[in-house]
Write a structure and sequence with these properties.
- The protein is an alpha/beta fold.
- 38% of the residues lie in helices and 19% in strands.
- The strands form two sheets. It has an eight-stranded parallel β-barrel, surrounded by eight helices. A two-stranded antiparallel sheet has the order 6-7.
- Bound molecules: ligand PBG.
Length: 306
């Protein structure tokens, strides 16, 4: 009766990795229990999850090297498997809330979120590509775009592009405080999207910074974001609380791949009780102030007994 915080399946967004082709399912080796799926199998997965009470999904494409180039041109090619699958998913499950990722890295031969020239990321030139990408995704009927690229000014830019083309109802979940973190490595395995040179420290945030998260939140809010996200979650609970206390927008937290893998690895050795630690983790993220949690544990949370 006096319990202050409860996590429910309605709080969760389940990230999924999409493969080109059909009847394909391959486990991410650094993320036991998480599979890359072709569209036909993903439709079945979404159907199952909806029955378990999971209503929202964030879909990322695992793109074959042959389709990658410097300008991420496949990201706005309507015939490409990712965009075709999104359309099919929304057609079959209009009630599912579908979020997409806006960033160049899955399609970039450089493995960076932005356009690279002479070893540098070109912020403003990247915006044009992100605009085409977001528009192509909106055209499939999805509900939320998630700019995970961290270029400056992209929320305002994308909002304008979407509105101008009649997609005023597509929401933007901005990766507001996305830190240059070591916890993303298993995700980069999943998509084979690790940077080919350098790191992402010129566009992702310094883990030492807190006040800067407030500045990012202010900018994103002014530019028209509908949600503010903090990422990773477990090592940034203070930032989640900071944004919750300083914003009236819904706050999302991304319980990232490395956070999932740590718990899975320890549980596989019998060092931690997976179900218990998973629930405690999600609870702590919600208690910190997250209204929405993106987590690879979503299905396990919905499936296993409490
Ligand atoms: C890149 C992107 C990353 C994640 C989501 N979008 C990785 C990165 O910035 O290198 C990480 C998610 C996770 O680790 O679960 N646009």
């Amino acid at each position: 009766m006096v319990e202050e915080t409860r996590v429910t399946t309605s709080d969760l967004i389940f990230p999924l990795f999409l493969l080109e082709g059909s009847n394909l399912k391959s486990e991410v080796s650094s993320m036991p229990g998480i599979f890359r799926l072709s569209a036909d199998l993903m439709l079945k997965e979404i159907e199952q999850c909806l029955k378990l009470g999971i209503k929202a999904f964030d879909i990322f494409p695992a793109v074959d090297d042959q389709h990658k180039d410097q300008k991420a041109t496949k990201s706005y090619d309507a015939t490409f498997f990712y965009l075709r699958a999104l359309k099919e998913i929304k057609k079959q499950f209009p009630e599912a809330c579908i979020m997409t990722d806006v960033a160049m890295d899955p399609y970039s031969s450089d493995g960076h979120d932005g356009l690279v020239k002479d070893g540098k990321i070109l912020n403003d030139e990247t915006l044009e590509i992100l605009g085409k990408m977001a528009l192509a995704q909106a055209e499939t009927g999805i509900d939320i775009i998630g700019p995970s690229d961290m270029m400056d000014g992209r929320v305002g830019y994308l909002r304008k592009v979407l509105d101008k083309n009649g997609f005023t109802e597509v929401s933007i979940m901005s990766y507001t405080a996305k830190y240059a973190s070591g916890f993303y490595n298993p995700f980069r395995d999943a998509l084979d999207s690790a940077p080919k040179f350098g790191d992402k420290k010129t566009y992702q945030m310094n883990p030492a910074n807190r006040t800067e998260a407030l500045l990012e939140a202010q900018l994103d809010t002014d530019e028209g974001a509908d949600f503010l996200m903090v990422k990773p979650a477990m090592t940034y609970l203070d930032i989640i609380r900071l944004l919750k206390d300083n914003s009236t927008l819904p706050i999302a937290a991304y319980n990232v791949s490395g956070e999932y893998s740590m718990i899975k690895a320890a549980a596989q050795r019998g060092w931690l009780d997976e179900d218990r630690v998973m629930r405690e983790t999600l609870l702590s993220i919600k208690r910190a102030g997250a209204d929405v949690i993106l987590t690879y544990f979503a299905k396990a949370f919905a499936t296993q007994p409490t």
